[in-house]
Amino acid sequence: MAGRADVPEVIWARPERTGRGPRPAYTRADIAAAAVRIADERGLDAVSMRHVAAELGCGTMSLYNYLPRKEDLYELMVDAVGAEHELWEPSGDWRADMLRVAHQTRTLMLRHPWLPALMSPVYGFSPNALRYLEHCLACLDSFEGTYGTKFELVAMLNGVVTTYVGNELATAERARALPWSEEREQSVRIAYLGAQIATGAYPRMAAAFMEDSGPIDLEAVFQRALERVLDGFDPTR
């Protein structure tokens, strides 16, 4: 006979307390806050039931009375930081509002560098995730399209933000791990690249470097990426 562990369960459908017996020592919010603190300070790999229990000052096994599995802990963490989204009254300009959503999401991910690794549709139905999605749909009230198209727009915009921030964080992490300065690393690589292009084997790359207009403005690149996603949905473009 299949046991309880064999039956999928949504943590939000499980009562936080049954109403019987003594009041639990911790709430889900307490547990989520402890896990978020650990992830912010030591990274996602440091988040374990044992470490969260130590942060709370309780036994590891006692946490399983609150959370049946570690995936539920991750879902609590994503929902907890989702509460940091600012939900404003939509302006009626869906492009401006969705750009604001995207920039805010990027700020949130940079504040919690482990968040991109946990971005998944599986965690898309928590209380704060639902409030976020409802807010996005409200921002898109002036957008003429089906709800299916609106969900696709939100998903694609989030995908761009997650990918961009993931690259930002990976680059920063790699720079921290270098035994020398990032500038020295880049100068060596640029010198090698220049030597390869000078062989004449890469004429299109050479042409690209000839029209180089200076340092890349990463903020402008991010903004253009967002705008191009929205252009694909905008019937006026």
Explain what you see:
By secondary structure, this protein is mostly helical. It has two domains: 4-82, Arc Repressor Mutant, subunit A, CATH 1.10.10.60; 94-233, Tetracycline Repressor, domain 2, CATH 1.10.357.10. 62% of the residues lie in helices and 0% in strands. It contains eleven helices and no strands. The chain has helices spanning 28-42, 49-56, 60-63, 70-82, 94-111, 115-118, 127-139, 147-177, 182-197, 203-210, 218-233. Helix 4 (70-82) packs across helix 7 (127-139). The model has no long low-confidence stretch (mean pLDDT 90).
Furnish the topology, listing elements before pairings.
Elements: H1 28-42, H2 49-56, H3 60-63, H4 70-82, H5 94-111, H6 115-118, H7 127-139, H8 147-177, H9 182-197, H10 203-210, H11 218-233
Helix pairs in contact: 1-2, 1-4, 4-7, 5-8, 8-11
Keywords, separated by commas or semicolons:
mainly alpha, 2 domains, Tetracycline Repressor, domain 2, 237 residues, Arc Repressor Mutant, subunit A, 11 helices, 0% strand
Task: Put the structure in a nutshell.
The chain is 62% helix and 0% strand.
- Topology, number of strands: 0
User: Secondary-structure element order, as H and E?
Assistant: HHHHHHHHHHH
Number of helices: 11
The shape, in one word, is flat
The CATH architecture classification of the largest domain is Orthogonal Bundle
CATH superfamily of the largest domain: Tetracycline Repressor, domain 2
* First-last Cα distance: 58 Å
Largest sheet entry: none
Percentage of β-strand residues: under 5%
C-alpha Rg, in Å? 23 Å
